[in-house]
Amino acid sequence: MAIAYQETHSVWQEADQPFLPSLGSHETADVCVIGAGISGLTTAYELLESGRSVVVLERSELHSGQTILSSAHLVNALDDRYFTIRKKHGLEKARLAAESHTRAIDEVERIIRAEGIDCEFARVPGFLFLYEGDEVGLLHRELDACHAVGLKEVELTSPSSAFPVPLGPSLRFPHQARFHPGKYLAGLARAIQRKGGKIYTRTEAQTVEGGHPARVTTNRGFQVVSESIVVATNVPFNDRFTMHTKMAPYRTYIVGLAVPEHDFTPALFWDTGDPYHYIRSCIGANDEQILLVGGEDHRTGQDQAPENRFRLLRTWARDRLGVEGELRYQWSGQILEPHDGMAFIGLNPGDKDNVYIVTGDSGNGLTHGTIAGMLLRDLISKKDNPWSALYDPARVSLRSFTTLVSETAQSTAPYADWVTGGDVSTIAEIPAGEGAVVREGMQKLAVYRDHNGLPHFFSAVCPHLNGIVRWNSAEKTWDCPCHGSRFDRLGHLVNGPATTGLSAVVDSRIREEGAASA
Questions:
Q1: Which strands sit side by side in the sheet containing 477-479, from one edge to the other?
Q2: I want to staple 170 with a disulfide (CB 3.0 to 4.6 A). Which of 127, 210, 376, 443 is the partner?
Q3: What is the DSSP letter of 428?
Q4: What is the percent of the chain where pLDDT is above 90?
């Protein structure tokens, strides 16, 4: 079942939102935060608590970003594994990674209690179990690393009756947590408003100018003048090249299965696969029990049949967990994988000394976003924070050079699409409700045929760094395989780093041929 991007529905979108207006005049504040996901709102909240005034700008709606597309695990069990983090960063920084993610879970819980946010928060254990064919020695390596970085309570065990099929040897991580991210964002937004912060939705920041004062100019020409700027937009749109060479965009997939007959252990689960699978239960519409099963990650725009990923998740849940159920939800999200496994939080490299970024979530965006709030609060306040070097966006990691080379090759290889033919020879071959790239002389066109058969023409060139977009049949989007920009079926921007949509093509001859094919 293919779900169009506009119709893709996360279980977490079922949450009331506070009224948030659009920006209709110039504003001033101590800090302007761009992006109203967990990174932006947590940063705004922490800054308000420290006595600063804050304006938050969000291009779309409160529940439109990547926070709402997560599986809502709050964990210090990092998917890059602590033995790998220790190898890449050294023991002390691996210890700081464990400490900061542990503190992030505690901070979410503190905010929920302080602000009375009803978001289904619960402390639960997490279990790391073996992927088919993996050896138990892998768990022993991770156990040793966990103890070395200070997670002394992690233990090797076997979860009993978690699923119909035994999981086998597992590492048990205590004191993890789960919550409803949609309700948390809504509660956080209300708390920010109570504290005097201002949040403007449907307000697109178009230019970011550091300096004293700093300025953000919106699509309607209004400006927010501030002392500091935080760009918390999942991927920094104010940087064209530098940060995008340090991380790679991946799609990750989730299915929600109705399983009312199962009594699942209240816990979080992951396996050791690459890409790995992640599991948790939650309550969906009409108080129905839902099992969320995620994984099957791949580089954005580099899978010819992404709709198969949802089917593979359901097959894996049946074969590995012994669970089947009616499909109620399916969606995918964008993950930015830094080459050394740690997010980028701090001053934007090469920019003025008052422009900060948050990016590179590495599959742990909820805790990384919360870490960002605490760390950026201290950096803007000129306070020392022991985590600053670990998350510094300007850092260079020679121990991750092999990963850097591999990911860079995957980012540059798709530029060969410039010299290939189209997906189809003629527009008439594109089914209604689908899209394809078509070569027209020296140019490539992204052509979408709507459900009435009428074709819509756009340049297939991504406005970020000129990659050729590819059609995503699962979500009806155009995805750039180079740096992960995404556009809806009609060329409108969905995800950066691009800052504009695909250019519409108005060549009359092309339109005449398209009309004839319809």
A1: 470-472, 477-479, 486-488, 493-495
A2: 127
A3: G
A4: 59
For position 159, what pLDDT does the model report?
A: 77
d(CA 473, CA 307): 7
Q: Which residues of 311-323 are buried (b: 16+ CB within 10 A; e: fewer)?
A: bebbebbeebbeb
Q: Model confidence at 516, in pLDDT bands (50, 70, 90)?
A: low
Mean pLDDT of 22-36: 97
> Over the stretch 148-182, which tens digit does the pLDDT of each residue have?
999 999 999 987 778 888 899 999 999 999 999 99
**Closest C-alpha to 38, from 63, 14, 21, 55:** 63
336, 357 Cβ separation under 8 angstroms: no
User: Which 3 state secondary structure label does DSSP give 117?
Assistant: coil
Note whether 189 and 18 are within 8 A (CB): yes
- As given in the structure block, the two tokens for residue 215 are 């300025």
Buried b / exposed e along 93-115 (16+ C-beta atoms within 10 A): bbbbbbbbbbbbbebbbebbeeb
User: 309: pLDDT confidence band, cut at 50, 70 and 90?
Assistant: very high
Type of residue at 20: L
**Assigned token pair, 93:** 């920084």
As a whole number of angstroms, the distance between CA 225 and CA 95 comes to: 38
Where does 40-133 show beta strands of DSSP type E?
A: 54-57, 73-74, 122-129
Ranges assigned E (strand) in 210-319: 214-218, 223-231, 247-258, 268-271, 278-283, 289-299
Is the pLDDT at 21 greater than 60? The verdict is yes
The answer to whether the CB of 472 falls within 8 A of the CB of 301 is yes
Q: What is the spatial distance between Cα 213 and Cα 27, in angstroms, rounded to a whole number?
A: 13
Residue 514 confidence (pLDDT) above 70: no
Residue 286's pLDDT band (cuts 50, 70, 90):
confident
Which residue reads 């920006």 in tokens?
A: 23
Nearest alpha-carbon partner for 492 in 66, 4, 62: 4
Work out the pLDDT band at 47, boundaries 50, 70, 90: very high
pLDDT higher than threshold 70 for residue 507? no
Burial readout 169-197 (b: 16 or more C-beta within 10 A, e: otherwise): bbbbbebbbbbbbbbbbbbbbbbbeeeeb
Percent helix, strand, coil in the chain, to 5, is 30, 30, 40
pTM for the full model? 0.89
- What does each C-alpha distance from 32 to 43, 183, 227, 243, 358 come to in angstroms? 10, 24, 8, 21, 14
Helix (H, G, I), strand (E, B) or coil at 57: strand
Query: For 130-159, what is the mean pLDDT?
Result: 95
